[in-house]
Specification:
Elements lengths: L5 E7 L3 E10 L2 E11 L14 H17 L8 E5 L1 H5 L3 H12 L3 E3 L2 H14 L7 E7 L4 E7 L2 E8 L3 H8 L7 H14 L3 H4 L7 E5 L1 H12 L6 E3 H14 L15 H18 L3 E4 L4 H13 L4 H12 L4 H18 L5 H17 L11 H10 L8 H13 L14 H16 L11 E6 L4 E6 L1 H6 L1 H13 L6 E6 L1
Parallel strand pairs: 1-4, 4-5, 6-9, 9-11, 13-14
Antiparallel strand pairs: 1-2, 2-3, 6-7, 7-8, 10-11, 12-13
Helix pairs in contact: 1-3, 4-11, 5-10, 6-10, 8-10, 9-10, 13-14, 13-17, 14-16, 14-17, 15-16
């Protein structure tokens, strides 16, 4: 089969890594292949929240197998997503650097609410059309996501730090299932989820769906024992808990529908699920077919079209902080003109990605002004580093924050980022466009010529003599910009034609 018509999503979960390959067919995503491997990275975090070498090796080995399967895919066809374990891991960069080389594609660490958004997107796409108000619950290895939504639109998204792996390690450390351990685990889960009582109360939704891991395992166990297929009830949870208590430990559990790799963590997952039922007054939960990986696939396909949620969220954030839209567009047009001139030999796809992210930075570069005009670039960077903006990964938001931080002022604060030529070109274009648009009117670009030698780390701007005389303030500010770059490894040269 030709790979050009395929899409692949990789979910690096706390308990399992999953690869889903799909193909669009008549507007629907048809599964081509699905691979799941139990990696258990979630229990590989030590007391200092570092991934152990063993846990990293398990992940790398799995990704090597996935990488072989998707060899030949284009970057636009693949999305690899990491969740709570790698959100927590202090040494995640060590794991991710090698993981990217092994897999052959970037790996995105996403925030909890972005995980929730993708879960809902995956669940809703695989449900029948309905006007019902939906509650979706996903109990993963180290986090639990809850979402309210209607149709394919989520309205409330939250992520809580508890899950089947974390709770099994904490409350069943010796692998023993006891009544007192279950009681402690459920009480603790309710404490973490207390806020959910208000956000997801029974009056907010009509039907409850459960996605992935724990919910799927519980539903399979109940279905195998002749409970209604794909449904979880309070009575069913009580029956399953009783079976675990009688078995006392995973090795003794003999239960159709529960796979061997799920047994060590089903106790923690069941305790969390029981707490969710109690807190939200759930009588019945339906096991959904969709999951995070399906949402990632649909989001990937949307990005190829005109429905990239990231652009919508940038518009929303700019509007929320009352930025000057006309100035943002003016700065963006100018910056993109300069960036294209600096990277004429770049591949079209690469250039487009750089231009798009530069456009977002231009739209958001003045968000901090709502807080204070003084040091507004620092306030804007803080906002971006501390917001869950749907559609964006943590790394994408941080890169935007650094562009906003660096668009004015000294540059030594960006030492690490200035090692990346692509970032420097974006930043240079943004800083120069802010200078050229300082009077908040469209600048005259006809007398300017700019070029970049990335190997020599040099950007050269040539000013026409007539231009410099016509726009003396802009010419002065551009010459001052040369001084700002002198304390970096990059040179910015300004010369007259």
């Amino acid at each position: 089969m030709q790979t050009k018509s395929l899409y692949a999503a990789i979910d690096l979960g706390s308990n399992s890594f999953r690869l889903e390959i799909g193909q669009m067919d008549a507007g629907q995503l048809r599964r081509v292949e699905y691979i799941k491997e139990t990696v258990r990275q979630g229990n590989g975090l030590d007391a200092e929240r570092n991934l152990t070498e063993e846990a990293m090796v398990r992940g790398w080995d799995c990704l090597a197998r996935f990488g072989e399967r998707i060899a030949g895919f284009r970057p636009s066809q693949v999305r690899a997503i990491a969740t709570q374990t790698l959100r927590e891991a202090r040494n995640r960069d060590v794991f991710l650097a090698k993981a990217k080389r092994i897999l052959g594609f970037p790996i995105e660490v996403i925030a909890g609410r972005e995980e929730a958004r993708l879960i809902y997107l995956g669940v809703s796409h695989l449900l029948p059309q309905s006007d019902e108000r939906r509650l979706v619950v996903d109990i993963g290895g180290r986090s639990t996501e809850m979402i309210l939504g209607r149709h394919e639109t989520a309205s409330t998204l939250e992520s809580y730090r508890l899950g089947s792996v974390a709770w099994s390690m904490k409350y069943f450390p010796d692998g023993l299932w006891t009544a007192s351990a279950f009681k402690d685990a459920e009480i603790a889960a309710k404490a973490v989820l207390e806020e959910a009582q208000t956000l997801f109360n029974r009056g907010q939704w009509d039907t409850c769906y459960g996605s992935s891991g724990t919910v799927g395992a519980v539903a399979d166990a109940l279905t195998a024992a002749d409970w209604p297929e794909g449904q979880i009830t309070r009575e069913g949870l009580a029956w399953l808990k009783d079976r675990l208590l009688k078995a006392q430990k995973p090795d003794n559990l003999r239960l159709d529908g529960v796979k061997e790799d799920r047994k060590p963590v089903i106790g923690g997952g069941l305790a969390v699920l029981h707490a969710v039922f109690d807190l939200l007054n759930i009588d019945q939960m339906h096991a959904a077919q969709g999951a995070l990986r399906h949402g990632a696939l649909y989001d990937l396909i949307d990005r190829e079209g005109t429905q990239d949620v990231r652009s919508s969220m940038v518009d929303w954030l700019a509007q929320r902080f009352g930025t000057d839209k006309l100035q943002a567009e003016r700065v963006s047009r100018t910056a993109q003109h300069l960036l294209q001139a600096m990277m004429p030999e770049a591949a079209a796809a690469e250039r487009q990605r750089h231009l798009q992210k530069l456009h977002w930075a231009c739209q958001l570069h003045e968000t901090g002004m709502r807080i204070s005009h003084s040091d507004y670039h620092k306030h804007g960077a803080y906002i971006l580093d501390n917001t869950d903006l749907p559609g964006f990964t943590l790394n994408e938001l941080h890169r935007l924050s650094q562009l906003v931080l660096g668009h004015r002022g000294k540059l030594r604060k960006l030492d690490i980022e200035l090692e990346d030529p692509g970032f420097v070109q974006q930043l240079m274009a943004l800083r120069l466009s802010v200078i050229l648009c300082h009077a908040r009117r469209d600048p005259d670009l006809s007398g300017l010529d700019i070029g970049c030698d990335a190997l020599r780390r040099t950007v050269r701007l040539t000013l026409g003599s007539a231009w410099a005389e016509l726009w003396p303030q802009s010419a002065y500010l551009l010459r001052e910009e040369k001084t700002a770059w002198q304390k970096t490894d990059w040179a910015f040269q300004v010369q007259k034609d």
